[in-house]
Automatic annotation (TrEMBL):
The keyword Transmembrane applies. This is Carbon starvation protein A. Its main location: membrane. The lineage of its organism: Bacteria, Pseudomonadati, Spirochaetota, Spirochaetia, Spirochaetales. It comes from Sphaerochaeta associata. It is found in: Cell membrane. InterPro entries: CstA, CstA_N. The chain crosses the membrane at residues 84-109, 130-154, 166-188, 200-219, 225-245, 250-270, 290-309, 329-351, 363-396, 434-453, 459-478, 490-508, 528-551. Belongs to the peptide transporter carbon starvation (CstA) (TC 2.A.114) family. It is a multi-pass membrane protein. Residues 2-349, 356-502 form the CstA N-terminal domain. Keywords: Cell membrane, Membrane, Transmembrane, Transmembrane helix.
Length: 562
């Protein structure tokens, strides 16, 4: 298979899906351009802010496009390029994009509230609390996996203890990038510059960071970087969003454009051959294609984390309902395209029956840099910029998920009737944002020391189970508001089957190790506990949701917002 052919065919399929299936969903669900959105009705200048389609699209894509669409396809490439490509395209079009679109639509029709609220509205308060606990556990897994990936990307030493110049330059650039983001946040807030001035300052600052990183690479061991990454997350998850998260998203948009454009141009210039086998078998290296393929490739095909972003922040910024289609459905399809590019990169560097050593982001950056080298662009510069973009997206995901995890933990001990001024000592402590953040990050660190490769199957399973539960909530919402929702049912049951199978396999493997005496208390023990908790919580929520969807005897229709 030729890389250009794969890329062009994928673009045609994804664009066609947006124009046909995306518009079909918008019509069937009754998206109304004349209807006032929560951002317009409840504008408060803080959370509910009517924002242009382009800006919200940038926020949505920067938030959902972490290392997932790069990491998943490269890890799943052991099964061959055909199953990976099919799952990315079919999953992205009919499951992932539908989930993202449905999540933001349900949220907008419920005053911009989260998927957790949708579950509470139709399933009950117990369902919401179980979902919050599930989201907290899931957030810990995301933190663990992505923190290890970022630390590995910054590791300044190779296996033989020689300096890794690319990683060192990326580490320096990323550190300077964070400092620049803080400065830009204060500049925007207090000087209130025009959009043109802000853009010019951002681009010049970004170029300066890259040049600084190339000139002064930073060589620090991965273990220390892991500590520094968690310290950064701790700060980023509690400071005001305008001081760090918003300017980082703004800067990330330029990196995003460059990374995708560079990869596409590089593929057309290099015209790479896909050296991966088309299909390697249903059982490879002891791993079964079902369900491993479908949980390893998450963000490129479907990701439950997206539903939390779509119904958490993006829905509060929608200025017009017609903007939901490009912002949610469109952003997911663009992420599927990134996953396809990642697959092409893996296929291009695959040789002698194996991929090069390194993390998937490093392999991706190596491949794109190799493509661009044929166009005369220095390998070190392009490799550093691509690696920087990937690490920046991973850090953005860490920022977001640490905040989501902290808020979920706090909300576990509060409800609408809680009197914050008269809470008990323990309740006050557990709802404190610093305590909630520390507890969340502590468990994340304990899992991260085992490496992303060991965590990824559990993370992927939990992530896909969040997607299945989000699809349950969307299906219930559509039914209760008398809208066509049958297109949700097959994806919902498929994802439930995939995730419960994967989690059950993880539990069986850990129990087998326990019986055989090959059981590591910290690594295997925590994963076993997490897997059992996730299965238990998921089963209860799923059963309650399916019962509400198909067997609810209560004929009183609680209209959310038809």
């Amino acid at each position: 298979m030729n890389g250009i052919v794969m890329l062009v065919l994928s673009i045609v399929v994804l664009v066609g899906a947006y124009l046909v299936y995306g518009r079909y969903l918008a019509k069937k669900w009754g998206v109304d351009a004349k209807r006032k959105t929560p951002a317009m009705e409840m504008e408060d200048g803080v959370d509910y802010v009517p924002t242009s389609r382009q800006v919200v699209f940038g926020h949505q894509f920067a938030s959902i496009a972490g290392a997932g669409p790069i990491n998943g396809p490269i890890q799943a490439a052991i099964f061959g390029w055909v199953p990976v490509l099919l799952w990315v395209l079919v999953g992205g079009i009919f499951i992932g994009a539908v989930q993202d679109f449905g999540s933001i639509f349900a949220s907008v029709r419920n005053k911009g509230r989260s998927i957790g609220y949708i579950i509470e509205l139709y399933v009950g308060k117990l369902g919401k609390r179980l979902f919050l606990l599930f989201v907290w556990l899931f957030s810990i897994l995301v933190i663990a996996a992505f923190a290890d990936i970022v630390a590995g990307t910054f590791n300044g030493f190779n296996a033989d203890l020689s300096h890794n110049v690319i990683n060192g330059a990326t580490a320096t650039t990323s550190t300077a990038f964070i400092a620049v983001a803080v400065g830009l946040g204060f500049f925007i807030r207090f000087r209130k510059p025009t959009n043109m001035v802000t853009t010019l300052v951002a681009i010049l600052s970004l170029v300066a960071c890259i040049l600084f990183g190339l000139a002064f690479p930073l060589y620090i061991q991965k273990t220390l970087w892991l500590y520094l990454v968690f310290a950064y997350i701790m700060v980023a998850s509690v400071v005001p969003v305008w001081a760090l998260l918003q300017p980082r998203d703004f800067l990330n948009s330029f990196l995003l454009v460059f990374m995708i454009a560079a990869a596409v141009v590089g593929i057309f210039v290099a015209n790479p051959t896909i050296n991966l086998p088309a299909f390697s078998g249903f059982l490879v290296n002891g791993q079964q294609m079902f369900p491993i393929l479908f949980v390893t490739i998450a963000c490129g095909a479907v990701s439950g984390f997206h539903s939390l972003v779509s119904s958490g922040t993006a829905s509060k910024q929608i200025r017009n309902e017609k903007d939901m289609l490009p912002i949610a459905y469109g952003a997911m399809l663009l992420e599927s395209l990134v996953a396809v590019i990642s697959l092409i990169c893996a296929g291009a560097v695959f040789s002698n029956g194996a991929l090069p050593a390194g993390t998937p982001p490093q392999i991706f950056a190596m491949a794109v840099a190799g493509f661009l080298a044929k166009a005369g662009i220095p390998t070190l510069a392009s490799n550093t910029i691509i690696t920087l973009a990937i690490s920046a997206f991973a850090l953005t995901s860490l920022d977001s998920v640490a905040r989501i995890g902290r808020l979920s933990f706090q909300e576990l001990f509060m409800d609408s009737s809680t009197d914050e001024e008269h809470m008990g000592v323990w309740q006050r402590a557990l709802t404190n944002k610093y305590v909630a953040t520390i507890l969340t990050l502590l468990f994340g660190y304990m899992l991260s020391v085992n490496g992303y490769a060991k965590i990824w199957p559990l993370f992927g399973s939990a992530n896909q189970l969040v997607s299945a539960l989000a699809l349950c909530a969307i299906a219930i919402f559509l039914k209760k508001t008398s809208k066509k929702g049958s297109m949700i049912w097959i994806p919902m049951f498929f994802m439930l089957g995939v995730t419960f199978t994967a989690l059950t396999q993880i539990i069986i493997v850990r129990f087998t190790r326990l019986i055989s005496g090959n059981f590591q208390l910290l690594s295997d023990g925590m994963q076993l506990i997490f897997a059992i908790l996730l299965v238990g919580l998921g089963l209860v929520i799923a059963c309650k949701s399916v019962h509400t969807l198909f067997f609810d005897a209560d004929k009183k229709e609680r209209k959310a917002a038809a």
